[in-house]
Design goal:
alpha/beta; single chain; 15 strands; globular; disordered C terminus; seven-stranded mixed β-sheet
């Protein structure tokens, strides 16, 4: 066996993973029982059980009591297979005739985006246009934004990415290896969960606000948090809670996904902690098609992420970055307009739910773009299929919860115009009335989650 450093079960899982992915242990192969392999390797049985269970979680092994452990007959291995995340599938093939009440993000570009691009086109740089770290003008603008918000930042502590999703992908690529443990909230942003699963990480979880307690006595490879305007609950960690999490994490890489942090209804976004890897984005503040995100992190981390980004795409689109520079000049006005719209839409959705679906339980959000709704005594995934046949796509909570919980929850966005929200709630109420008598049936089309 190749000599590596790390927990013994992780080393065993890593070697078995290589053999499976390379086809040297083909599909259909029955592996030795726990005790037999443990005796052959001169290790404890618990080491083999832990390695087998890790590979089972990744989909590389099937284990059934009385039948043994074997490699499933399949096509490409899970690490190389295409994504099954409905967020990506539905973006590729959006369903017709269905009101998308599962998407969370600005649904159309504001006038400021059009004007920013008009000005950007008159300021194209006279160079090759490849900037893996990001356009210098945008990095300087973002650094100035963080500095004015209470976190002194230099441009070399900022990496521009193609949206917040690429930022998370680069962080995962750089910091997470197969078998590494990643600590996340349950529930949380599903796009991050997919990245960690693709990296063959072992997901550990804690409730929102509980990450600091969960870190006691453990040392994961990465901690991922959405501390402000949490996706999907809309709650925020207090400043004291943020500081405690940073302190308890210590040397463990801590990622704050602040893509929604500027959408708080009552307060400005809290300052970033200099040691934390912070992810930001304009897609939630401005428009989903504004694919400009960034990482604010220590210089060494930014330099490492930039090397990965250079291999991926040589740098994000220059015109988009120039438009982002224009938007950052008047950021507070852009943000304020978006927050005012979301607050009004939030209140409209809450009022409709209280009148049309009084059985549903929720807590009003303090910001962000979504409500976390409980359907008492109901399976949200089954209800979502009934809602789909009534022309409304909603996202069941299980898709956002790595613990296997939240099965009675829905994530409902308040990003649409009032008349669209009214139509959606009318459809959801009709579906709810039929839910008790109408079987859910098989899935009709996937739902979207961003």
């Amino acid at each position: 066996m190749v000599r590596r450093r790390g927990s013994l079960y992780l080393l065993l899982a890593s070697r078995l993973r290589e053999l499976i992915d390379e086809g040297r242990v083909p599909g259909g192969t029955l592996l030795p029982p726990d005790r037999v392999l443990a005796a052959g390797l001169a290790v404890g049985r618990t080491t083999v059980v832990a390695a087998y269970d890790l590979l089972r979680q990744e989909g590389r092994l099937v284990r059934r009591r009385g039948s043994g452990t074997w490699v499933p007959q399949a096509g490409p291995s899970p690490a190389r297979a295409e994504t099954a995340n409905p967020m990506f599938l539905n973006l590729l093939e959006p369903p017709d005739g269905v009101l998308q009440f599962a998407c969370a993000g600005p649904l159309s570009p504001p006038a400021s985006v059009v004007e920013a691009h008009r000005r950007a086109l008159s300021r194209l740089p006279d160079d090759m246009g490849y900037h893996p770290l990001g356009l210098p003008a945008l990095r300087a603008a973002l650094a100035a934004h963080y500095t004015s918000s209470g976190t002194p930042t230099s441009p070399d502590e900022v990496l521009v990415t193609t949206g917040g999703q690429q930022a998370l992908a680069l962080i995962t690529r750089a910091l997470v290896a197969p078998g590494d443990e990643v600590l996340v909230e349950a529930p949380t942003y599903p796009g991050a969960l997919d990245l960690f699963r693709e990296a063959a990480a072992v997901l550990r979880h804690a409730p929102p606000g509980g990450l600091a307690d969960a870190l006691a006595g453990v040392r994961p490879a990465l901690v991922y948090a959405v501390p402000t305007c949490h996706n999907p609950t809309g709650s925020s960690l207090s400043p004291l809670g943020r500081r405690r999490l940073v302190r308890v994490a210590g040397e463990v890489p801590l990622v704050f996904d602040d893509a929604l942090a500027h959408l708080d209804f009552t307060a400005p976004a809290p300052p970033a902690a200099p040691s934390v890897i912070t992810v930001g984005s304009l897609s939630k503040i401005v428009w989903g098609g504004m694919r400009v995100g960034w990482v604010r992190a220590p210089r060494a981390v930014v330099a490492r992420l930039a090397r990965f980004k250079a291999v991926h795409d040589l740098g994000s689109a220059v015109v988009e970055q120039l438009a982002a520079v224009e938007l950052m000049r008047d950021f507070e006005a852009v943000r304020g307009e978006r927050v005012a719209f979301l607050r009004a839409s939030h209140d409209h959705l809450c009022g409709l739910l209280r009148s049309e679906l009084p059985e549903w339980e929720f807590t009003a959000a303090t910001g962000g773009q979504t409500l976390w709704v409980r359907l008492p005594g109901a399976d949200a995934a089954a209800y979502a299929q009934v809602a789909l046949r009534h022309g409304v796509a909603v996202l069941p909570g299980g898709a956002l919860d790595p613990s296997g919980g939240s099965t009675d929850r829905l994530r409902l966005p308040f990003v649409a115009q009032p008349e669209v929200i009214t139509r959606a709630v009318t459809g959801l109420a009709a579906a709810w009335r039929r839910f008790a008598t109408e079987p859910a049936g098989p899935p009709v089309v996937p739902t979207i989650a961003v």
